[in-house]
Every structure is written in structure tokens, then in C-alpha cells.
Amino acid sequence: MTRALSHCHNTIVAACGFLSVYRGFIAIALIFSAATVSAADINAGKQKVQQECASCHQPSDWEGETEASLSSLMKDIVRGKVNHHKKQLTLSDQDIENIAAYWVSSSNKKK
Ligand code: HEC
User: Is 102 in contact with 67 (CB distance < 8 Å)?
Assistant: First the structure.
């Protein structure tokens, strides 16, 4: 700590004080952005589905499923518990949340 601040000469102590307050804000901002990343992102889910799933699946395939039931189906596939059309899926937990949110929201819209 002393070492890190050793470049703070008396003349610019005010500026250094400001900088550490600023660093505090950055830390808080990082905490908040980490929290946002863990919330389901429907647009990211849509993108992933368009790239990897839309050739075989439509949102209407999932009518009656909830985000939770779809997520757990996907998790079972990723873990190899459910055989998925001979095509192993590699999805992060975040991908799964995003995809479930997208599929459930668009299958409900179409009803
Ligand atoms: C090549 C075609 C194909 C692609 C691409 C594909 N799927 Fe599937 N998927 C299937 C078929 C066929 C089934 C149903 C029969 C089966 O499970 O083998 C299925 C079933 C599922 C199920 C239900 C499993 C169950 O037990 O009811 C989920 C969930 C699923 N897919 C998710 C995905 C996701 C997420 C993606 C993209 C990351 C994806 N699939 C991409 C063909 C595909």
C-alpha cells in the first residue's frame, strides 16, 4: 500500500486521493456488471440458438416448458445424461440460462 502510493508527492496528493476514490467506483461498477452477466440475456440466447440450434429447433417446440425445466433438460444433455440426437452440446450455464429465457419468452409470444 505504502509502496503503491509512493509516487504521490505532496503537490498531487489531492489528485491521488481522487484516484483512489475513483478506483472504489470502478470496483463497485465491476461488482454490478458481474451481477448483470449472471442474469439471463434473451438476446444472447437468441444469437446462440440461431447459430447452433435453430436448424433443428423452433421456440414452439418448447410449449409448456418453463425456463427451469428447459434449463435442466439442457444441463442433462451437456452432462451426457440425456442422449441428444447423437450431437453432444457444449453450453455454459450462462448459455443455458440465456437460451431457456429466449425459448420460453418466444414460445409464449406465439401462442
Ligand atoms: C442436428 C439437429 C439438432 C440440433 C442442431 C440441435 N438439436 Fe436439440 N434435439 C434434436 C432432436 C432430433 C431432439 C429430440 C430427439 C432426441 O433427443 O434425440 C432434440 C432434443 C432436444 C432437447 C430435449 C431433450 C429431451 O430430453 O426432451 C433439448 C433441450 C435440446 N434438444 C436442446 C438443444 C439446444 C440447446 C441446441 C443448440 C445449442 C440443440 N438442441 C441443437 C436435434 C437437434
Answer: no
Sign of CA dihedral 58, 104, 76, 94: positive
pLDDT tens-digit readout, 9-27 = 555 556 656 556 656 655 6
The preferred substitution site among 52, 56, 78, 90 for testing ligand 1, maximizing ligand atoms within 8 Å of CB, is: 56
Helices (H) and strands (E) in the chain, counts: 4, 0
From 49, 51, 53, give the residue whose CB has the most ligand 1 atoms within 8 Å, as the site to mutate.
Answer: 53
Burial of 73 (0-12, 13-18, 19+ CB in 10 A): middle
Question: pTM higher than 0.85, yes or no?
Answer: no
